[in-house]
Design a protein that fits this description.
Helices cover about 20% and strands about 35% of the residues. It has helices at about 5-10, 175-180, 185-190, 290-315, 335-340, 350-355, 365-385, and strands at about 25-30, 40-45, 50-55, 65-70, 85, 90, 100, 105-110, 125-130, 130-135, 165-170, 195-205, 210-215, 230-240, 245-255, 255-270, 275-280, 360. The strands form four sheets. Strands 11-17-16-15-14-13-12-18 form an eight-stranded antiparallel beta sheet. It is globular.
């Protein structure tokens, strides 16, 4: 027997730098725009601070339609504007009634002779698209370049599609990078989400990272009403650091395919927690009513909720690792993280290796053979009455 060397016996030591104190540059979705249009200020805890989202009112008291996002803390004496009141086209501080316009200027101080000329707070660049509200975050303070704009989702607003079924989940003790790592992690779909990937490919290009996957349910796990039982095709793309559009085609039987769009997005609360949001719209099948389409979207979202809860359980109990020990079937983890790094450095420091096109297709043959054998063993043991 060959003698083991000291190098052979050396254990792998996990390396992990502290989580970054800087937040990613890019568009971040804050949720469905309609939820902020109720005439009251809304508090958003994000980017290590708090924001206030509000919709101003016209002189007649009607909502103006435009949503504004400001820093939540009043520069006067620190009152929280999200606990204040919408008055006209301003949000009024609950502490001293200083009133702030959507552009960040103080519009009025009822008890004062004049408004100080430097009475301004930060107004965040925002965007409404696809029925959602986004804010632009850039540590350098630069405006968003047009090439990173959030794409229009063609199905949204089309009467042949449902409206959004939307959910959110606060994730503690975990960094945003954990969720983005899933873009390349083929194997976890089998072990965590009970899917059986047959095809898996990644393409990184510029600010977009895409995952192409074809899968079927494992067959040895009962997913109840949360599974169609057929195949699933998924084209999922991150547009920037935090917003994924996932186009899905599900085999629902009888040669019928259900088309849907999943949004998987998040924004950082602080360096060790983030708000995870996900929603679905579904294209109506022939003869499907609005109510049936809404139910289909809801059921799809419920299935997603189960999957995300499984992910969260992993994330909150794992450790951060910067030097993962990988096999080729684990996918291009290091290349994905290099792509992701572009959002955490100054624009002038973005390297070509972070944004140039990269493609990687995993050979799933060995994994498929091993998983088929495992599923067959599980089914045979279950048929024999074993636990």
């Amino acid at each position: 027997m060959a003698e083991k060397t000291e190098v052979d016996e050396a254990p792998r030591v996990i390396e992990a730098a502290p989580t970054p104190t800087r937040f990613a540059r890019g568009w971040h979705c804050l949720g469905l725009a309609a939820t902020f249009r109720d005439g009251t200020p809304h508090e958003i805890e994000a980017f290590g601070t708090k924001l206030v989202v509000f919709q101003g009112q016209s002189a007649t008291g009607e909502n103006s339609g435009e949503l504004s996002v400001l820093n939540a803390y009043c520069p006067h004496m620190g009152g929280n504007l999200a606990h204040g009141t919408v008055k006209g086209d301003t949000v009024a501080c609950p502490f001293h009634d200083w009133r702030w316009s959507g552009d960040g200027r103080c519009a009025a101080i009822p008890y004062a002779r004049r408004v100080p000329p430097r009475a301004r707070t930060r107004a965040w660049t925002s965007l409404e698209r696809n029925g959602q509200l986004y804010v632009w975050h850039d540590p350098e303070g630069n405006p968003p370049p047009p090439e990173v704009a959030i794409p229009v989702i063609e199905g949204f607003g089309d009467p042949e599609w449902s409206d959004w079924s939307w959910n959110f989940l606060r994730v503690e003790n975990s960094n945003c990078r954990e969720i983005v790592d899933n873009v390349v992690d083929m194997a976890h779909f089998y072990y965590v989400h009970y899917a059986f990937p047959h095809y898996f490919k990644n393409v990184f290009d510029g600010h977009v990272a895409t995952q192409y996957m074809e899968s079927t349910p494992r067959g040895d796990v009962d997913l109840g009403t949360l599974s169609t039982g057929g195949g699933l095709r998924s084209d999922a793309s991150y547009y920037g650091p935090s917003y994924m559009i996932d186009k899905l085609w599900s085999d629902v039987g009888g040669g019928v395919e259900l088309e849907s769009v999943l949004i998987n997005c998040h924004y950082p609360i602080d360096g060790n927690s983030f708000m995870l949001m996900y929603g679905t719209i579904v294209k109506k099948l022939p003869g499907m009513t609005d109510e049936q389409a809404a139910d289909a979207a809801r059921l799809t979202s419920e299935g997603l909720a189960v999957g995300f809860e499984q992910d969260v359980e992993i994330w909150k109990n794992k450790t951060r690792i910067d030097n993962p020990l990988l096999t080729e079937e684990d996918g291009p983890v290091y290349q994905l993280r290099r792509w992701y790094e572009q959002f955490y450095v100054d624009a002038a420091d973005v390297k070509d290796e972070m944004v140039r096109r990269f493609e990687f297709e995993i050979d799933t043959a060995r994994a498929t053979a091993a998983w088929k054998a495992e599923v067959a063993e599980n089914l045979a043991r279950r048929a024999a009455g074993a636990p």
